[in-house]
Structures are given as structure tokens and as C-alpha cells.
Amino acid sequence: MALRLLSRIAWVLVGGLFIFSGLIKLNDPVGTAIKLEEYFEVFSVDFSKVFLSIKPFALYLSIFLSTLEVVLGVALLVRWRLNQVLWLLFFLTLFFTSLTFYSAYFNKVTDCGCFGDALKLTPWQSFTKDVILLVLILLLLATQRYLLSLGRVTNKIPGFIVLVALLLSVGIGVYAYRHEPFIDFRAYRVGANLPKLMKPSAPLRYQYVMEKGGQQFKFESYPTDTTYVFKQMVPLNPEDGPKITDFNIWNDQGDFTQEMFIGNRLLILVKDVNKADRESFAAINTLLAGLEKTQSPKVVPVVITSSSSQDFDVFRHEINLSAPYFFADATVLKTMIRANPGLLLLKNGIVVGKWHYHDVPQATEVQALLK
Known about the structure:
Radius of gyration: 25 Å
Shape: globular
Oligomer: single chain
Organism: Rufibacter radiotolerans
Order of helices and strands: HHHHHHHHHEEEEEEHEHEHEEH
Mean pLDDT: 91
Helix content: 40-55%
Membrane topology: Multi-pass membrane protein
Subcellular location: Membrane
Number of strands: 10
Number of helices: 13
Structural class: alpha+beta
Transmembrane segments: 5-24, 57-78, 85-105, 131-148, 160-177
Protein name: DoxX family protein
């Protein structure tokens, strides 16, 4: 009786976790693809340059692997082809367990991206999670007879449910790619106060690791005894640190980060001019023309790019983009928005609007958000 109950608890936990993990990744397939690219770059250095040839397909792999997680989780819960599904889950989890161990042991990728931006896990936490999951799947393989005894599973309904899960998963991933994530877990989400997020929420406290006579000692204040040798400084409350640490805007004249938080600013984010969707600038230029005609509320358009000034000068003349431009780190722009180009509307540093290039708003919509 106890084993039967344990089997059914594991059944719900494993199925639910795979569905949750897959949906979180499908919510932001571009973010998942960025994480895959990070793994490919690491593997290309440690194992083979062939991983760099897979990098261009990261987005397709992102949607495929995330969809696979959801479909396998649903298939497990409805007990469709139970034995085959359990073995697929076992080998998939075994692969990810090896991956997270390698990442944790050699400190290669500090965030596995298992749950996207919704839940950050350290490499060792990710590995522990995968080991527990592996044990639960082994339990299910050994006790699947208890799941089969729950009722008749040979009809066509489970297969139909799995098919629906497959279609919905692909649809969610493709839609999220062509727009913004359904739920934005990033620091630049609508409603975020960027200047506030760039400051610690509480005074940071540190622990000082010192060495003396071959022994290690830990202090919460730096020791005055000069015979101690400093080893490292460890934050005691890292969760109170700034949520945004790398937002910097500049041009040849200097730093303009704080200026971006003054008044109403429409940030036009262009990560890479060579990969930007050029056709979308017709709608963006129409928006800028509409905003220019309106005196109140006044909106200042600003272009931010990570491309070189030479490349951007050529690009902006080709698309007739009339707005001052500044520079930012490419990784920051990827975090701010998944589109290239994308739009971010700031009101005194607070994000009040965010759009993919497929969803460029009308001037009236922008103005309504600023009232």
C-alpha cells in the first residue's frame, strides 16, 4: 500500500515538473535559445568546434526540447504508452543530470536555465534536482504496474490529449517567439522601476574569509590583526543586492545612463543591425512621426544599439530612422527585450510599455500609457 502511494505521488510530481519546466521555457523560447548557445560555446572549447555549427539552430532546439518536456509530462500523467514514455524520461533526465554535474563540477555555466528566468538555480541545486528526479523515474519504472491499475488506458483519449498538448506547446513557443513572453520574469518587465532596481534594497553585508597558521577564519567585520591573510569576501545577503547591475548607456560624449530616466523616453532597441527586421521600421517611423506631432505628453525617442557607430550610421540612413542613438552592451539588450528591434517606453525610469517589432503600437496607445 505504501509503495503504491509513493508511486502515485512520484507520478504526479514527475509529470507536473516536466510540464511546468517545459511551459516556463516555451514562455520565453528566445531566452532558452540564448542559454543553449551559452552551452554550445562552452562545449566548443572543451570538446569540439562542431558545437558551434549547432548554434544557429538554438531557437529550433529550444522549442523542440521544451515541447518534448511538456508532451512527455502530459503523456506520463494520462499514462499514454507508459513504459516507452518512462524510458524516454529516464534517458532525458540522465542526460541533463550529466550536463548539470559537468556544469557544477567545472563551474562552466552558472545558471542551467532549467526554469528560465522564473526560478534561478545554482549549478549544484540543478544537479541535486536532476538526481532526485532520476530516482523518482526509476521508482516509476519499477512500480508502473500500480499506475496501470488506475483504470483503462488503452482507448484513444490519452493519445488525443498528447496530440493536443503537442500542438498547443508548439503554438505557445512560436507565438512567444514572434511576440514577447506571456509572463515577463525579467528585471525590465512592465512596471519595473529601473533606477530603484539598480540600487541595493538593503545595506549589503559581507563575511571576510581569512587565513592564519594554516587555518581559515570567518569574520563579519574586517579584523584589525594584520597577521591574518585575506582569502575572499562573501556576501551574506546577495538577495538584497541590485537586481540590475549592467545597464549603462553611452556615446562618444560620455555616459548618459541617468538621462534615460528623465521624463518620457521611447527606447528603440536594435541589438544587431545585421540581424534587425528592416521591414518593421516602416511602422516604427510612423509611430515616431505621430509622437512628434503631439506636444503633450512629450515623448523623446532614443535608439540604443550594440552595433558599431559606422555600421549603425549606414543602417539608420537606409531605413530613414531619425532619432539620436546611443550604445549599450549586447547582453543587456538581449535581456531587456527579445526582439530586434524592440520598443521600451519609460516614464521617469519606470517601464510602462514594451513591444516586439510585430506589435508596434500607435502613437495614441503610447500617449495613453503616459497619462
